[in-house]
Design brief:
The structure holds two protein chains of two kinds. Chain A is of the alpha/beta class. Chain A has nine helices and ten strands. In chain A, helix 3 runs parallel beside helix 5. The radius of gyration of chain A is 18 Å and the shape is globular. The mean pLDDT of chain A is 91. Chain B is mainly alpha-helical. The two termini of chain B are 42 Å apart. The chains are: A alpha/beta, B mainly alpha. At the A-B interface, helix 2 and helix 3 of A face helix 15 and helix 19 of B.
Chain lengths: 242, 567
């Protein structure tokens, strides 16, 4: 579903992402973790077609992002860490806008269930300025889910959510994965990654440090046996910085 | 407290200057813009032609004095009736955080506010001295400086006093009213004294609208008691600035200083609990600041959501979503109401100036329409900005959409082109309505030209201008004022001049081909089908040629957009 091979992204002298390769199959949830400045957001933005890679390929459901950007983007949704909403469109109008962009002909039928799932029904006539940070995040997620994408990319999806919102959003992500979507999420909340993800990609300074199910990562490093993801993460990233 | 104020002012100024110098050094294009900005100001301030002798004509002086007093009075009414707290009581968020919990008295907070306002007053005073130096009376620089400083400080104190009084009334409704009853009674009496003579002579005033006779009658009415008594303090405050020699100035200064002193005592002794109002005003200010940094939200008000012009269907051209979104933004007030009012005031002023002999309301309407149309043709692109110039702040989202760069760019330009053309067509109709009975304009006002030719020409010109503006935003984001990038200072003036100059130049170049083909078609068709009918094929050819040019430019901009990673 997501195929990344040799992804490299450079800015002048800085190599933000270096030769990254991984795959995410339908139903899988890949946790993208790394210290600040590791290249997580750059990687997600390359996957979303926002940043063109300097080299390497990214394919979404078989469509090369460079060759067929429009066809590839139709299949994916990107939810940024800071929700970017149009301040003059109401919640409901955001969904209408997205429906037209993604040509979702049955949006009117889908929208109420989605609003209900994300607890936005009673706020549907409100402007983003009248919503809390958490509600804005939920609206960004709703906009991403309306066209039923087969690939979901989340950058810190739970920032600003209350405990109930966190629970609901986790359920939403897992439900989409169960329905066959390939999900990549980046987060500093390692317990969340451990709970949600079927695999982990740990990156540091743009390089791949570890990749695969947590069990197989630990199996490759016997000294980490029995440790939680947080300890595994600290051990792997501190080894790189040394 | 004073020491803290001077520390903050000195260090803020120094840090700001240092930051601007670093930017100039790191990005030389800001230096170019700065030079152009300074050059503009130099020519504007120092190389203006000598003013006309009307500046010293006796009736002109009286008229200016009367108008000045009336403007001051209107400002005062606004502060008293509708509140001036938004500016008068505004503390910055940092001041609220550091000063309000600090162990300082209310009087100390007010003194802080007064000191801070002095910085702005001094800048304004210097600006006014330069701007009015040709027209002002021949008094030495320091004398005129003191005169303007007295006037501006008195006004500033009055606004603060009004804000404090209103805050006191709001906080302690009945007690506040009791404590401020004298001030309220004076305000009501002043309003009655001014309005009654105007109402009684309303038909006579309207008969003379809006030539010199109108202003003469207005002056006569307001120079009689009791209106003249109401305007007396304003004349007193303005008198030093209008003095023609030192002796006249000396006599005028003393009463003006007395008015200023009385205001100072009033403000400092005011014991109004203004903290709530100040915190609210400061929060509103911070909110406005945040909205301005956020695209298209500067004038959006929560809880007042207007309906979109039309409902967006999920099927159809995907770029239609962007056009719809930008139109919704306009309907919901992304355009500054202040700018609309300013344009209207300028247009009406322009119309009155042209219509000084009083040709009647119809001419006035026509002139306002034509003036507004002219302004929007020349400067409309700086006003209607619901396109890439605002949406580049959403670059991340736009690039994630399954749309080609060309579709996005075309939709963005289309939205502002349609909006601007619609506004212009409104003023075309207004101008036509006003001038429809003018025999000398009969040929120009033929229906073919007004209903087809002019709208076609306007949409083409707007399309080219706005495409160029958007191309500028895409290629040189630092040169076009993007919503999240608001550099201040002289370089902004330079940037605006340069971008507007280049846009006009390139628009003229872009119009050469459409104009040549359109004119050729008209010349060929006119002998066969007549001049009126010939406008139609000429307009079609003109529009087709221009659309072809714009489409080619948009296709290229789409490619640029797809390569743009960040702004």
């Amino acid at each position: 579903m997501i195929h990344v091979a040799g992804l490299t992204k450079s800015y002048k002298d800085l190599v933000a992402v270096r030769d990254l390769s991984f795959d995410v199959a339908p139903g899988e949830v890949l946790g993208l973790v790394g210290p600040n400045g590791a290249g997580k957001t750059t990687t997600l933005r390359c996957l979303a077609g926002i940043l063109p890679p300097t080299s390497g390929t990214v394919a979404i459901t078989g469509h090369d992002l460079k060759q067929e950007p429009v066809a590839a983007k139709r299949q994916l949704a990107f939810v940024p860490d800071e929700p970017q909403l149009f301040e003059y469109l109401t919640v409901e109008e955001h969904l209408q806008f997205v429906a037209r962009i993604y040509q979702v002909s049955d949006a009117a039928a889908r929208a109420p269930a989605l609003l209900n799932e994300l607890e936005l029904t009673e706020h549907r006539q409100k402007l983003p300025g009248e919503l809390s940070r958490g509600m804005r995040q939920k609206l960004a997620i709703a906009c991403g889910l309306l066209h039923e994408p087969r690939v979901l990319l989340f950058d810190e999806p739970l920032t600003g959510l209350d405990p109930v919102g966190i629970r609901r959003t986790k359920d939403t992500i897992l439900r989409r994965a169960r329905e066959g979507a390939a999900v990549v999420l980046s987060s500093h909340l390692l317990h969340l990654v451990e709970e949600l993800c079927t695999g982990v990609l740990i990156i540091g300074r743009g390089r791949r440090l570890a990749y695969g199910p947590l069990a197989s990562i630990v199996a490759e490093r016997p000294e980490l046996k029995g440790l939680a993801l947080e300890d595994v993460f600290l051990a792997i990233t501190s080894a790189q910085s040394e | 407290m004073n020491g803290a104020f001077w520390f903050l002012t000195r260090h803020s100024l120094a840090n700001r200057l240092r930051r601007q110098l670093v930017r100039l050094r790191s990005e030389p294009r800001y230096a170019v813009a700065l030079i152009v900005g300074f050059a503009y100001l130099y020519f504007f301030l120092f190389h203006r032609p000598q003013s006309s002798p009307t500046g010293s004509a006796p009736h002109f002086k009286e008229l200016v004095s009367l108008l000045g007093s009336l403007i001051l009075l209107l400002a005062l009414f606004r502060w008293w009736l509708f509140g001036g707290e938004q500016n008068a009581l505004t503390f910055t968020p940092a001041e609220v955080q550091f000063l309000f919990p600090a162990p300082v008295s209310r009087a100390a907070l007010i003194r802080w506010k007064l000191l801070r306002s002095q910085v702005l007053i001094l800048i304004n005073t210097l600006l006014w001295i330069f701007i009015t130096r040709r027209a002002r009376p021949p008094l030495p620089f320091p004398i005129y400086l003191v005169s303007l400083w007295v006037l501006f400080t008195t006004l500033s104190l009055h606004r603060l006093g009004a804000a404090l009084t209103r805050a006191g009334i709001r906080t302690h409704w009945k007690t506040g009213l009791r404590r401020q009853w004298v001030v309220i009674a004076i305000a009501v009496a002043a309003l009655v004294a001014l309005v009654v003579p105007l109402v009684s002579q309303w038909p006579a005033l309207m008969d003379r609208c809006c030539g010199l006779e109108f202003w003469a009658l207005l002056g006569t009415l307001l120079n009689r008691l009791p209106a003249s008594a109401v305007l007396f303090p304003f004349h007193v405050a303005m008198a030093p600035t209008a003095a023609h020699d030192l002796s006249e100035w000396g006599k005028a200064l003393l009463p003006a200083m007395a008015v200023l002193g009385a205001h100072y005592v009033w403000v400092i002794r005011s014991d109004a609990a203004f903290e709530d109002a100040a915190v609210q005003a400061s929060a509103d200010y911070a909110d406005r600041l945040a909205r301005r940094k956020s695209p298209q939200t500067a004038y959006l008000k929560s809880g007042k959501v207007a309906r979109p012009l039309f409902r967006l269907r999920p099927s159809g051209w995907p770029g239609g979503a962007i056009v719809w979104k930008n139109l919704v933004a306009i309907v919901r007030g992304s355009i500054s109401p202040r700018i609309i009012i300013m344009i209207l005031v300028v247009a009406i002023g322009f119309a009155i100036a042209l219509d000084a002999e009083g040709h009647g309301m119809s001419q006035l309407v026509g002139t306002v329409g034509a003036a507004m149309l002219g302004f929007l043709v020349l400067m409309g692109h700086t006003w209607i900005r619901n396109d890439l110039r605002q949406d580049l702040a959403y670059l991340t989202m736009l690039r994630a959409y399954p749309l080609s760069g060309r579709t996005i760019v075309t939709a963005e330009v289309l939205a502002s082109t349609l909006t601007l053309t619609l506004f212009q067509c409104g003023f075309v109709i207004l101008a036509w309505f006003g001038f429809r009975n003018r025999p000398d304009l009969h040929d120009f006002l033929n229906p073919g030209l007004i209903l087809v030719g002019l709208p076609c020409a306007l949409i083409v010109v707007n399309g080219i201008v706005l495409t160029l503006q958007n191309a500028g935003a895409l290629l040189f984001p630092s040169w076009v004022r993007l919503e999240r990038v608001r550099p201040g200072g002289f370089e902004t003036i330079g940037q605006n001049i340069l971008t507007t100059g280049f846009t006009i130049l390139l628009t003229l170049v872009g119009l050469v081909l459409p104009a040549a083909t359109g004119t050729g078609t008209f010349l060929l068709a006119a002998p066969v089908v007549g001049r009126t009918v010939a406008i139609f094929p000429a307009a079609v050819v003109f529009v087709a040629a221009a659309v072809g040019e714009v489409m080619a430019l948009l296709a290229w901009m789409g490619q640029v957009f797809e390569r743009t990673e960040s702004i």
